[in-house]
Amino acid sequence: MYYITLRKEDWHHSLEKLLLTCDIFVPVKDEYSLDYEPFRLNEAEHISYNMPKPATPLKNFFLPVRENVTAGSDGRKPRIIIGAPNCDIEALLLLDEIYLDETFTDPYYRQRRNNTTLISFDCFGTNDHCHCLSYGVKPYSVEHADLALAADGDDICLRVITARGEEFATLLSPARKLNDTESVSFIEQKRQSVEASLAAKNKGLPDYHDTGQLVQKAGYAVWVKYASKCVSCGACTTICPTCSCFLLIDKPDFEKVKQMDACQYPGFERVAGGEDALFELPHRFRNRYMCKYVWKPQKFKHMACTGCGRCIEACIGKINKNELFMELT
Amino acid sequence: MTDNTNIYKPLRANLVDVIEESPLIKTFVLIPEREFVFSTGQFIELSVDGVGEAPFTPSSSPLVTDKLEVTVMKTGYVTNIMHELKPGAVMGIRGPYGRGYPVKSFEGKEVLILGGGCGLAPIRSLLFTLEHMKDKLEKVILCYGSKSPTDCIYKPLFSRLNSIDKFETYRTVDRTEEGWDGPVGVATALLDKIKVKIENSVAVVCGPPIMMKFGTIRILEMGYRDDQIYLSMEKNMSCGLGKCGHCMMGEFFVCKDGPVFTYKEIKHNPEIWK
């Protein structure tokens, strides 16, 4: 891992040149939200640097809401996704475990993963419900993105993390490699301030492991209480960077369409005879918590919640999972 | 195995015969476009073109690889339409998926099988396998219950099994009809009639959820250890690939980690009888 630096205008110019061969997505803030937009010529000034966090989770680039999984793949053109926060980068690891599983590899997911360069943004601020640090996820990427970017005024500083990142770095000019003695103190300062802010706003919140224990022990009454404000809309699972359940829909000529699904929707577990283990809303509501904090950790190596807080922001019933956990503590 | 470059793509299979087993149950005889190898207890996703697919454990012998039989109860949207299909139709198959019965470990043992209703379909496939390896088994006992004598599937199977050395079968019905002189009552009651050396035995339970639960409790009462009991679990196995999430039972994907589990593997999980 090493750092390179270049002037912002050179960075923008390099990206514009890459448009000839790649699809590029960047975060743009408008009056409503911050979200990914396709990068276009002469629009570089719209990029919002180092802000938390795009409304759309990173998973949507790899698991489209709906796709025909018996037709040819669309994902051949190389892609560069810029601005993913580290909570989303870490969330991809669980999706990799599920979709790149050796026995049954999803060819569509694999192709998209293989042709995508991920450039994460260090978070220089926090949103109301960000709580990555409580689960041991840093607000900056040092391991699983290809590169991570920190903008400092007119300069861009890139942490080169993977071999793919290194290859990408050669396409940037004129970039200068920082030697070991050159400090990137502004990055260090930002990290300290963001981590302090995360720690302050999430004081007392149990960590990922303890949350699992609390969820497992929780009595039915707490699920009834919090589910009373749930309308089973599925916003929490749709917006979650690790939720990846889907439905296969049959089309003529034995084609299959894969569509994202949610355990919060009625009928998710219903079988042909009509039995439905998740028929009651509190059972469905509890299922998401059990899945994220108890079952997935038992089954997979990577976390099923990286503390992005989007499910809290998206809930129309204003259900705050962290309040639920604090109540259980 | 279906397409190994695209896990979602079904193999086509010609429907060559439809056998009526009971008023609600039919067996579909299929010839897949390629050889289809499965092990007993594994399941497939069988689809009606453009309509939908559903999981079934083949009821035919795993030793036959050019032909596949799938026994289907008419019970929901897809199976209702499936029951309208006639020979000549083309169906789709994905699979085989999951973990079947570890029949190799049954060698030298007495095998007790408790089945109910359409649960006899996967059991028939298991019985074919056990028949093939009967020289290596001590005994095979089948206890089977159906709602009524008419609802009993594979009727000729029982007399055939009874004629095979080392095989015993017992039948009961919930509701009697004219001409039935056998026992009336739940399938678990048949367990009182049998003689089995429990310490050298395994028990297989396959049937509707209520029978699975009470059958397991009864078999435990008989003295079986939790690792001697094999359960074939039924969930909404939609993708079969351990991905779509519909069949999660606690930390398990029933489609990939099962559908056959020992009771020991899953007993800690209160979700299993839901």
In a few lines, what is going on in this structure?
Chain A has helices at residues 8-18, 86-99, 107-114, 163-169, 185-201, 208-217, 220-227, 235-238, 281-299, 310-314, 321-328; strands spanning 2-7, 23-29, 34-38, 66-68, 79-84, 116-121, 147-152, 155-160, 176-177, 246-251, 255-260. Chain A has 329 residues and is of the alpha/beta class. In chain A, the strands form two sheets. Chain A has an eight-stranded mixed sheet. A three-stranded antiparallel sheet of chain A has the order 4-11-10, with no helix packed on it.
Supply Rg of chain A. 21 Å
The strand order across the widest sheet of chain A is 3-2-5-6-7-8-1-9
Please, how many domains of chain B?
Answer: 2
Distance linking N and C termini of chain A: 39 Å
Per DSSP E runs of 2 or more residues, the count of β-strands of chain A stands at 11
How much β-strand is present in the residues of chain A? 15-25%
Category by helix and strand content of chain B: alpha/beta
State the major sheet of chain A. Answer: 8 strands, mixed
**Order of neighbouring strands in the sheet with most strands of chain B:** 4-3-6-1-2-5
- CATH top level of the largest domain in chain B? Alpha Beta
Number of helices of chain A: 11
Share of helix of chain A, binned = 25-40%
Order of helices and strands of chain A: EHEEEEHHEEEHEHHHHEEHHH
Superfamily (CATH H level) name of the largest domain in chain B: Nucleotide-binding domain of ferredoxin-NADP reductase (FNR) module
Tell me the major beta sheet of chain B. 6 strands, antiparallel
| Count of spatially separate domains of chain A | 2
Structural class of chain A: alpha/beta
* Oligomer category: heterodimer
